[in-house]
Amino acid sequence: ARAQQITWEDVASADGRYRLKMPKGYRYMTVPAQHSVLHSYVTILPDRFIFEFLDVLFVGIQSKITQEKFKEPSAGAEAAAGLQKSWPGSTVLEQRWVTLGPAYGWEFVFGTDQGSRVVIVRMYLTLNASYTQVVQGPMADRQNPAVTQFMESLRFS
Predict the structure, then answer these.
(1) pTM summary value
(2) Are 38 and 28 in contact (CB under 8 A)?
(3) What digits encode the pLDDT tens for the residues 78-89?
């Protein structure tokens, strides 16, 4: 999954809230719900890397979690515990507070499959939406330039 072997595509929300780069060939799905709309972009590369971006737009409501409340260590621990349900048996290797423009949130690095795989998650929250970037791949390739390119490509308008 070397960066030069991946063809990247620019992706942007229809309403201009964000843009990012996804590996070419991603699948896109929209799921409407009562108070939100989920937009999902997923690419699975042949060498077992998975890149995913989730955008949950709140409809008719606003986030009740303030930046100050979400920044508390207990909120980070709660978010990590919730995410770990997606990867049973995973271990939190790192976590840190992150901000990007008007969004704020957490980055987590999980070890899975007895440490052979890594899951990197960045969760951002705004008043009107939540955004999640996920990369899954071999632990040995954690520092792969493609991972950095994907994680650093997200921009909010």
Answers:
(1) 0.90
(2) no
(3) 999 999 999 999
* Amino acid letter for position 83: L
Q: In sequence order, what DSSP letters do the residues of the chain get, joined into one string? A: --GGGSPEEEEE-TTSSEEEEEETT-EEEEEE-SSEEEEEEEEE-TTS-EEEEEEEEESS------HHHHHSHHHHHHHHHHHHTTSTT-EEEEEEEEEETTEEEEEEEEEEGGGTEEEEEEEEE-SSEEEEEEEEEEGGGTT-HHHHHHHHH-EE-
- What pLDDT digit, counting tens, does each position of 24-57 carry? 999 999 999 888 899 999 999 887 799 999 999 8
